[in-house]
């Protein structure tokens, strides 16, 4: 479907789950506790989990997505809403953007287990139900154009490992999806998670970190700002920065040298500064034995195993490419979310000050390597 001569992969397109997904798909033992996406407004991503309504800034006075914004989204996504975001609507959206392929990430699924602590068995059942539904959704749409990122629960590493194995081997998923935030007071470099990293490495799938605002996770900025517009400035980018530092400085990439990580929907402008700051501190502290568990510069680990998403209209990407190169960047429409530029996301990307060879890598080659497509 080449657009302006480029084949295109959306590296983290989203689905809009049906309101009864978990009611239909969850293990019957948990049916009375099944999450539910609300559908009381024309465009509604609010999700109820264990009696908590998300998206809502904890302690805030405003929902994470205002009614005025929902009305605006109802106009932009009118065709998709009319189809109730069915499988065919995903392909219609891709065709509008000129996308050849897309890797699908959740919307309500980003809230469904978004508690710092929760019943691990319930969380696992929620993930299994979502993955089964996503498999059916892809089959009903077009499995030659759509791929899935499986949801797994960090609340129990053993069930996360078993669900990762099942999702990849039985359902054909191409990645796992995780929130970058801290679950159960364990940073991602805690050896508790090593079995999860090991199975992902063995299966040759990446880990895609993706943040959202308005859940019950601790997120950068939500402790001091209680409206979406302000909190959203910090949550996505800063949580990705912390997860990137966690994975690199905590030695996860050292221990799992072929495991790929993607830091998604947090822009890429922070990457040169952050890698440089990690390198600087590595050089400062290593002579004192503090970082002896790392055998390379932090930036070298990222260049070996890391990827970062460019927002479709992120003009600063030209500076990132000039500083770090273009081999570790991917991009996305962020369909069907409030801050998406759909249906003009890819048009905006093609207006960025990038050379044709960089566009080709970001739109296709790098996503192929990330997801082993």
TrEMBL record:
Keywords from the named record: Lyase
Membrane-crossing segments per the record: none
Any one GO molecular function term: carboxy-lyase activity
Start and end residues of each Amidohydrolase-related domain: 84-373
Any GO BP: secondary metabolic process
Cross-referenced InterPro entries: ACMSD, Amidohydro-rel, Metal_Hydrolase
A Pfam family of this chain: Amidohydro_2
GO cellular component, one term: cytoplasm
This protein's name: Amidohydrolase-related domain-containing protein
Source species of the chain: Candidatus Entotheonella gemina
